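Anyone up for a design puzzle?
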């Protein structure tokens, strides 16, 4: 090729890389007040990610390996706040369904290698916050 020249390639049969067709999020929260004036919040979040290809090269050795099916994750929290809002204690859980899914990667055909990274496992957090 000479400088200024380029090759036109028809890629209409290839999926877009790193682009799920659909993603969605639903968050639900309920807050109720105790007779003491404190409050408790219950929260849950659902996140949906349609299947995604992390490579759009259908001829690549890693094309099928760098494909992840659709999945949904669930997060939840219970948050207690004092009446004066100075203290807050929260128990949170992320990825409660423990969906370990591929969330990125690449293939190097010259070496026959495929590298991928995965979502975090189920995790729990406990926090206490004091506002001065």
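Challenge accepted. My sequence:
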């Amino acid at each position: 090729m000479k400088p200024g020249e380029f090759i036109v390639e028809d890629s209409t049969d290839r999926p877009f890389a790193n682009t799920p067709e659909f993603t969605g999020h639903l968050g639900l929260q309920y807050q109720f007040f105790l007779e003491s004036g404190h409050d408790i919040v219950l929260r849950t979040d659902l996140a949906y990610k349609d299947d995604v290809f992390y490579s759009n090269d259908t001829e690549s050795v890693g094309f099928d390996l760098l494909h992840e099916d659709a999945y949904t994750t669930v997060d939840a929290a219970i948050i207690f706040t004092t009446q004066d809002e100075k203290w807050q204690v929260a128990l949170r859980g992320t990825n409660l369904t423990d969906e370990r899914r591929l969330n990125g990667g690449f293939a190097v055909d010259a070496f026959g290698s495929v590298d991928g990274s995965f979502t975090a496992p189920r995790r729990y957090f406990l926090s206490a916050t004091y506002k001065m």
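A detail worth pointing out: Residues 23-130 form one domain.
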